[in-house]
Amino acid sequence: MSEPLVRRMREFGETIFAEMSALAVRTGAINLGQGFPDESGPTAMLEHAADAILAGDNQYPPGPGVPELREAVAEQRRARYGLEYDPATEVFVTVGATEGIAAALLGLAEPGDEVIVFEPYYDSYAAMIAMAGAVRRTVTLRPEHGRFTFDPDELRAAVTPRTKLIMVNSPHNPTGTVFNRAELEQIAAVCREHDLVAITDEVYEYLTFDDAEHISLATLDGMRERTVVISSTGKTFSVTGWKTGWVCAPAPFVNAVRTVAQFVTFTASAPYQRATAYALREEGAWVEKLRKSLQSKRDRLISGLDAAGFETLRPQGTYFVQADIRPLGFTDGLELARALPERAGVVAIPTQVFYDHAEAGAHFVRFAFCKREAVIDEAVERLRRLAP
Ligand SMILES: *Cc1c(COP(=O)(O)O)cnc(C)c1O
């Protein structure tokens, strides 16, 4: 039989996370590959979800999401960013940020349209751009003064008459960069000048460290009207399995997202929506504690990786550290990541798989620090075996 998979998806095989997690299970290695926390979110939020199920909140909620959550999201955007969104027409609930990204790309990109993404990119962007029949154009993030950033000339050069959208993920997975105001102004200027729509993936909006501040691109001049904001509950409240997200945008963009989402999932899970509404309103202190604890775990992992001989970049946000493998005598992160479980009993993710220009990320691997301290300590102890 000929290959049944449609042509436009053939470049997307098994994800690196599936490959590496299977390797972790087979070898018993510590998995610092995939970014999910090993502790659950605030107890009262978990109880809200459990109570909602037991109280019978188990049927289809309204397609755009339960009103309570749409209102809580609008309140959160107003309180944190000073932006007004009408919960009835400008907020839409999705099955995690992943569905928001998918529905936004399928609803806004015509076949042949170009979409700018910063590489390394979150893997679902590339797959959904391909499913839309659109074309991705990458702008490369490179280390400079201890953090990954882009060259504004390269960004401007990526725009063509076919460019329609730009994807902006900040705080950025997998580099940990939090775009500063100057970088966001450069992106905004390109959007305004070329009439582009921005899709912002803000799932790590609360998880920033030291003095880094998350700025929503939509707050910049002329940007609210052309930005589709996406966020979700998974990273903010350590419940990545809940898959409850939302889109905030002017009504015509929300309509585009809804038109797609209503046929993909129809609606997101009801009990998690109510629990998320509660958490957005009441669990700010818990999130601040999580942020501080992640910052100290970041420092713990970095000290350990440096002691093991890697050269690390200190991320300003997210769950992830980029480690340069060259000081240990390695050059290819993919090769090292495939050997690491057997050699050292630890799983990491090779950064190059998130680039179109793999050479730009060839010598980096990504480690996650959203794990218990004992797990981090054991992992870095094992990594000391790599030293020549
Ligand atoms: C985890 C993650 C997502 C997915 O969020 P869900 O709400 O679980 O769908 C999207 N974007 C980035 C950058 C992520 O790290």
Automatic annotation (TrEMBL):
<dbReference type="InterPro" id="IPR051326">
    <property type="entry name" value="Kynurenine-oxoglutarate_AT"/>
</dbReference>
<dbReference type="Pfam" id="PF00155">
    <property type="entry name" value="Aminotran_1_2"/>
</dbReference>
<protein>
    <submittedName>
        <fullName>Pyridoxal phosphate-dependent aminotransferase</fullName>
        <ecNumber>2.6.1.-</ecNumber>
    </submittedName>
</protein>
<feature type="domain" description="Aminotransferase class I/classII large">
    <location>
        <begin position="29"/>
        <end position="383"/>
    </location>
</feature>
<dbReference type="InterPro" id="IPR004839">
    <property type="entry name" value="Aminotransferase_I/II_large"/>
</dbReference>
<dbReference type="InterPro" id="IPR015422">
    <property type="entry name" value="PyrdxlP-dep_Trfase_small"/>
</dbReference>
<keyword id="KW-0663">Pyridoxal phosphate</keyword>
<dbReference type="InterPro" id="IPR015424">
    <property type="entry name" value="PyrdxlP-dep_Trfase"/>
</dbReference>
<dbReference type="InterPro" id="IPR015421">
    <property type="entry name" value="PyrdxlP-dep_Trfase_major"/>
</dbReference>
<keyword id="KW-0808">Transferase</keyword>
<keyword id="KW-0032">Aminotransferase</keyword>
<dbReference type="GO" id="GO:0008483">
    <property type="term" value="F:transaminase activity"/>
</dbReference>
